[in-house]
Amino acid sequence: MFHPTRSVQLLALLFCSFLGSSAIAQKLVVKTKQPTAGISPTMWGVFFEDINFGADGGLYAELVKNRSFEFFKPLTGWKTVGKKLAEGDLLVLNRGEADAANPRFLRVQARQTVKNDLGLVNEGFRGMGIKAGLRYDFSVQYRLDGQPFRLLLELLDNAGAVIGNTSLPLDQADGQWHNQQISFTASATATKGSFRIWFEGNGKADFDMISLFPSDTWKQRPGGLRADMVQWLADLKPGFIRFPGGCIVEGPVLAQRYQWKNTVGALDQRPMVVNRWNFEFGHRPAPDYYQSFGLGFYEYFQLAEDIGAQPLPILNCGMACQYNSAELVSMDDLQPYIQDALDLVEFANGDTTSQWGRLRASMGHPAPFHLTMIGIGNENWGPQYIERLQRFTTAIKAQYPDIQIVNSAGTDPSGDRFQFLDSALRKMNADVIDEHYYRSPDWFLQNASRYDTYSRNGSMIFAGEYAAQTDRIASTENRNNWRGALAEAAFMTGLERNAGVVRMASYAPLFAHEEGWQWKPDLIWVNNLQSYGTPNYYAQQLFSLHKGTHVLPILLDNQPLAGQDSLYATAALDSVSKELIIKLVNAGSRTVTPTLSFEGMKKTIGQARQIILHSPDLAAENTFAAPLKVSPKEETVFIKGSTWPVKVEGYSVNVLRIKLR
Ligand code: AHR
């Protein structure tokens, strides 16, 4: 059909390309005095799941894999060594009900052994990253049967040479369990080191919770988190952190669901669970992937507080993963699950005289964690979900009317399952609906207007998991390339423009270990010592650091800019810094120069910041070797008058910050 405006634009385009010029004269009107909605402080957040070695082997800085011998094969990660090593000298025993949360331990039978006679080597999680000059903190539980023992501890480099050692005498030989620790320093760096223990002694000795941490954890907390990984999160200034997932909330079967109460309190009383990503993808098996819960709910709340993010825990709703067993708990047996949710609010916010508030205080945080929202169910669907959710909602709202409940819209952003959930949740007046989209870059480009027509009077939206799949979902060929990141940025203009209904958004998944991953793409990649942000990370960061407080219309021919000429835009007012913030995404290859016109402002003369994320190459990726290949650059630009031609390079995301006078 003939469309006059589009035809004129097409002619201009042809003319410009004929001249080799870059000018397309779109006039974008920013209505500076007409805010349409507030932007939630929680708008841009992070989604954390223990997938891709995100927690164990990643954020949780423990270097020893299978420290308490609870993996299915109890010596997974360990190798027995020594000249005097004989059958039965190193055994794993099970004390069963005597310590049901931590049943297994190592029994050593030594016969006058000294260095090199009898020992164990731990391989770490795809090796151990060891740093020259850094202090390492070793701890162990031991029980001696009459005779003292000595441990010789050795850090080994990639080739097995010793790069740090110490010895630890164990002398409480009273047949009781004791804790012992010692620190020592590495003399060299290793990217894939390991850790060896020689057992010197005579007779029987038992060992458990054999642990080794670097001392340079986040905030130097003993037994804490990898500082470089937390820093990436802190640098996003996220509005919230969603945890612990993701599918691990559901578990493949109910017995292996995530149970927060099993992740708090003493470390050795947090029963391990096999990580569902251990076996979920046959093409990326990880038989050594378990959840130690060293990073448990207390640590998640603490992390949220550290990085200034609202905590958003997601709890199991009484359903296991519907792609796996789809096990359900019967409605008659649902109460303990609901009680877990109620108790979690008490754990986070309760008075220190309450049962769960007291536990929080005993772990080191008497002040509340200010939990304001809780998710019930992850990617659950069907009437079974709604039936269970209703019971949770009634109970939570009765006891904690101010807690906002995040509800699942299932796995897909369209289709019968989605439609069913969307209408059922809206009938329930759901506070927040959690939509997920793992879709192609084109889908993201084509759906920047998705929320333009969503009702402003009903449930709020949480874009809880999204990422452009450059190949297809769950494909190992997916890339964190500029093509995907650019498409996500285009889509995110639609999220921000619709902040009146979209309250929160988070890319997923967050972390991936270069060798331990199951799922691509991911926001941040790590190896044992290094980490880098993807182009997708920098796109997220531009939106998060420059979000503003109120949405302002930015219009082309009186319409939101959502793909016309491959351009996407959103504008905001920051009432705190007194700035206009304009984001312009050019998903096309040609540089364009739209003119910004600031309606409602007398003059805008002065300087502005233009922060540009750009690559001419849609296939560009960041790597360990070139971590900043696609990363933001900043320029100062000068504005004269109340209209302003702004250069928007092909394939670029631009943030303009203009001081209001
Ligand atoms: O982010 C990876 C997985 O994708 C999450 O665990 C799940 O919620 C979704 O299907």
TrEMBL record:
Coiled coil: none
Keyword annotations of the record: Glycoprotein, Hydrolase, Signal
Limits of the Alpha-L-arabinofuranosidase C-terminal domain: 464-652
Keyword Glycoprotein: yes
Keyword Signal carried by entry: yes
Enzyme class: hydrolase
Catalyzed chemical reaction(s): Hydrolysis of terminal non-reducing alpha-L-arabinofuranoside residues in alpha-L-arabinosides
Protein's GO biological process: L-arabinose metabolic process
Record Pfam families: Alpha-L-AF_C, ASD1_dom, CBM_4_9
Signal peptide start and end residues: 1-25
Superkingdom of origin: Bacteria
InterPro entries, per the entry: Alpha-L-AF_C (IPR010720), ASD1_cat (IPR055235), CenC_carb-bd (IPR003305), GH (IPR017853), Glyco_hydro_b (IPR013780), Glycosyl_Hydrolase_51 (IPR051563)
Enzyme Commission number, as recorded: 3.2.1.55
GO MF annotation list: alpha-L-arabinofuranosidase activity
PANTHER family named in the record: ALPHA-L-ARABINOFURANOSIDASE 1
Family statement: Belongs to the glycosyl hydrolase 51 family.
Protein name as it appears in the record: non-reducing end alpha-L-arabinofuranosidase
Lineage, uppermost ranks: Bacteria, Pseudomonadati, Bacteroidota, Chitinophagia, Chitinophagales
